[in-house]
Specification:
- The protein has 197 residues and is mostly helical.
- The protein has 7 helices and 3 strands, in the order αβββαααααα.
- It folds into 2 domains: 10-90, no CATH class; 122-190, no CATH class.
- It has helices spanning 10-13, 44-90, 125-130, 135-147, 153-168, 171-179, 183-191, and strands at 20-23, 28-33, 36-41.
- The longest helix is centred in the middle third of the chain and has 47 residues, at 44-90.
Length: 197
């Protein structure tokens, strides 16, 4: 990207030179540069303000140039970081670093855990055995089935029906949903609250 030069127009740049007062009574100020001459007449306060403002233009312009250059450097660094991030996502993942030991008083939120340390969930035989009697474990096993790549609509319907029944505290419907073979019956048990006798 080409940078636009930060230059004053010639007619303004010519006015930034050293002004001098020529007439004490009228506060007439003139500036002569080469063959050109510029003049104005004003009261002392106005003349001083105008001359000071015109003489500060080169300093202000210099500050703007420095700021532009600093912003250009920041832009280039951000572009480099963006390019590096794009390359990292395109490249294969690097091996997971060794787990660090927890520091006393350190945060233990999930946001602090590197993605490389979060693995897939697999139901162990111990959990499957506990699922026969424990509703929470049975729900874990059903979640594993329903979230698998080869899960059927029936598995997903069972999960919804079991979760709905468990949220209502209806264990009879919960256990029935876990072994139900009809998707329509599962949908009905997930939507309707259990009738109390």
């Amino acid at each position: 990207m080409a940078r636009t030069p930060l230059e004053l127009p010639a007619e303004i740049a010519a006015l930034t030179g050293t002004w001098k007062r020529e007439d004490e009574r009228l506060a007439r100020w003139t500036l002569r540069i080469g063959g050109a001459s510029y003049a104005f007449t004003a009261d002392d306060d106005s003349a001083s303000a105008i001359v000071n403002a015109l003489q500060r233009i080169p300093q202000l312009l210099d500050g703007l140039r420095k700021e532009r250059d600093a912003l250009a450097i920041d832009r280039d660094e951000l572009q480099d970081q963006l390019t590096a991030a794009a390359k990292r996502t395109a490249s294969p993942p690097s091996p997971a670093p060794a787990a660090a030991r927890p520091v006393a008083g350190a945060s233990t939120s999930l946001a602090d855990v590197p993605l490389s340390m979060i693995g897939t969930f697999a139901v162990s035989p111990k959990v499957k055995a506990a699922a026969k009697n424990d509703p929470a474990m049975a729900l874990v096993v059903q979640i594993d089935k329903a979230m698998g790549a080869d899960a059927s609509e029936l598995d997903r319907a069972r999960l919804l029906a079991m979760a709905a029944a468990l949220s209502r505290g209806d264990l009879a419907t919960f256990w029935a949903a876990g072994s139900e073979k009809s998707k329509k019956r599962l949908a009905a048990s997930a939507e309707l609250p259990a009738k109390k006798s």
